[in-house]
Amino acid sequence: MKTIQKTRLLAVKGEQLLVIEKKDAIKRFTLAGGVKKRNESLEESLVRETQEEIGLYLNAKTLAHVISKVKLKQNITTIKHHFVTTIKTNVFKVVETEKFKAVYWCYWEDALPYLDKEDKNAVKKYFKSKFKKKVKSKNYESSIPPRIAM
Known about the structure:
It contains 4 helices and 7 strands. It is an alpha+beta fold. The protein has one domain: Nucleoside Triphosphate Pyrophosphohydrolase (Alpha-Beta Complex), CATH 3.90.79.10. Strands 1, 2, 3, 4, 5, 6 and 7 form a 7-stranded mixed beta sheet that branches. The chain is globular. Mean pLDDT is 89; it is low at 134-143.
């Protein structure tokens, strides 16, 4: 059975995600990344692919694993690994112009409808854990302000 390992980058800046718009008739986004070569680590693969696709130089030590998803299809196992890093630069551009139209920052929630299933799930998992809404503790006292309650 053949195994293919893929990497994807969640480059974030606050609540924004760096997305690459594909050259398609319909609007579709992807995340930087690609197929891991035999003698490289997952992080090295992601650094190389990001540089090849959008000219962005990453430090492998800043990458944190978010999630991996295994997919089995016709004797091929594909494992997609998502990593996150914070990016402060805007120094990137589409290098692989035959595949991609543009690369830009987008609010993560706005990107979701245009991502594939695995990328969408990884983005939701990361941002929902990072920006969880704080639940107010239950206060059984009246919520009526004292000046009105009298």
